[in-house]
Amino acid sequence: MNDLDEYKEKDIPEKVERLVSVLRERRVIVAFDGFEEQVEDGTVRDEGLKLFLERVVTERVKGKVVITSKIRFEILEGRYSGCVVDIKVEGFYEEESLRYLNNFKVEGLTKDEKIRLHAKTDGHPYALEIFVALTHTFTVEELLEDESLYVGEFEKKFVGKLLSALGPEERETLERCAVFDAPVPMKAFEFVGAAKKYVEELVGLNLVKFDRGSGLYKVQSTTREVVLSKLGKDVKGLHVKAAQFWEGRAKDTRNIWDIVRAQEHYYEAGEYKKAGEIVNWIAEYLHLWGYVRLSKVFLERLEDKTDGLVRVGILHNLGITTYLLGDYGEALKKY
């Protein structure tokens, strides 16, 4: 498979075709872990990955593709048969929960209490982690006796209870960090006003994850959802700051995906003119690299949210995009 290196500079369809051909010929495994980061609205966000998976489920291949995801998604709107096996992985078994909790050495947490906690949380790993963090503020008995914590989406209730116990500095720091949906370096958090001291405290509480291999930080998805839901309109300014971080980073890295993240944050902030200016600029590059459908998504959502020259550019690029996708009638309407 060393010849795959030759395809690094190729367009996405060519890369996909080569990888699929390898799966046809050889019994290899392609694994995607943590795939929920690529899922949006029940489908695959990245057009290259989407095309690859669509090809795999419609071809006869010897190889296998293994995906782990916390979020369900569909390929080809579910129009496939036995070639896809969907396995729902439950929480830990009881003995696994006991071993996992032993790693944290919670003072006063007996074996019987660990078994009770396992039964109440179905062995959900993140719920167990947040429970441990909660024991720094509440007693084990208080947490186990509070039945309201274990009804409905208990992971979110655990996070909510932990948020209520945070000091004002830690809470504000977490709110600032939660604006980023991708793993980022510490300087990204600092750019939006988060203090390193409090970020490290949040890592200790399992509210922020730190990957030693990459040196990157990320607010866990459940925590981020709870935090942003409480922020409401106040999140707009944070999205603008996050966009400015990615813009500055893009100037250094010359990486198009950094500027793509910038426009995502501008869009979330309601700064549609700024988002539109970026999308108009990157559309041609996305087309050249095979991300035509992704370009179409960005352009269509801004079509009715922009005006003036930005909207003219959006319509122009939509015309090109729909033409490249073979929809010539729609392309003429846009032009």
SS summary, helix count: 17
* End-to-end gap: 44 Å
Main beta-sheet annotation = 2 strands, parallel
The amount of beta strand, in percent, is 5-15%
Please state the structural category. Answer: mainly alpha
Q: What Rg do the Cα atoms give? A: 23 Å
Shape: globular
Order of helices and strands: HEEEHEHHHHHHHHEEHHHHHHH
Total strand segments: 6
Arrangement of strands in the largest sheet: 1-4
Mean of all residue-level pLDDT scores: 85
Helix % is 55-70%
**Unreliable parts:** none
Notes on the structure:
The structure is a single chain. With 335 residues, the chain is mainly alpha-helical. Among the domains are: 2-78, no CATH class; 94-165; 271-334, Alpha Horseshoe (Serine Threonine Protein Phosphatase 5, Tetratricopeptide repeat). The chain has 17 helices and six strands. It has helices spanning 12-25, 47-58, 94-102, 111-121, 125-134, 140-145, 154-165, 168-177, 186-191, 196-204, 221-231, 235-253, 256-268, 272-288, 292-303, 308-324, 328-334, and strands at 29-32, 39-40, 43-44, 64-67, 208-211, 216-219. The strands form three sheets. The chain has a two-stranded parallel sheet with strand order 1-4. Strands 2-3 form a two-stranded antiparallel sheet. A hairpin with a 2-residue loop joins strand 2 and strand 3. Helix 14 (272-288) runs antiparallel to helix 15 (292-303). The radius of gyration is 23 Å and the shape is globular.
Layout: helices, strands, pairs:
Elements: H1 12-25, E1 29-32, E2 39-40, E3 43-44, H2 47-58, E4 64-67, H3 94-102, H4 111-121, H5 125-134, H6 140-145, H7 154-165, H8 168-177, H9 186-191, H10 196-204, E5 208-211, E6 216-219, H11 221-231, H12 235-253, H13 256-268, H14 272-288, H15 292-303, H16 308-324, H17 328-334
Parallel strand pairs: 1-4
Antiparallel strand pairs: 2-3, 5-6
